[in-house]
Amino acid sequence: MRAMKQTCFGLAACLSTMALAASAAPVASERALREECSAFSQAGMRDCLAEKAEASRKALRRAEEKMAGTLSKWDEDDKYVNQAKAKLAASNRKFAQYREAQCDFAASLSGGGAGSAREVRHLACVSELNNRRAEQLRNAASDLPLK
Predict the structure, then answer these.
(1) Can you give the pTM of this predicted structure?
(2) Which residue of 39, 59, 89, 107 lies most exposed, with the fewest beta carbons within 10 A?
(3) Which domains does the chain carry?
(4) Domain named Lysozyme inhibitor LprI-like N-terminal: which ranges (predicted)?
(5) Is 90 exceeded by the pLDDT of residue 4?
């Protein structure tokens, strides 16, 4: 009976570890996103990636809002909370600039491909970068001690 309890405890620990790992799935790369949508026609692929880009924008917006809210609850002097909030706002603006420049570059890698090829690359890039940024913000917020 004791061995069975130890096995069950071990299994429960394994299952909770696996669930945690699954919830922290890696962010899909541009290439993986394009491959996910490649089963569709060219127009369908563009629509698929546009949906992924929109979902990533929403996820990023939620992560930015959550980070701002977490900073408001941060157990730190107001001086540092306000500094962090200002740095977050500046970082969000700089990220948006970086994302546009990087995704314009990614789109240029379609070379002489049709216009939709450029858009496909741009949308996949936007989606990947937004999802990576959202993940960074969620991770940063999870480390802060709250009041």
Answers:
(1) 0.81
(2) 39
(3) 28-142 (1.20.1270.180)
(4) 41-137
(5) no
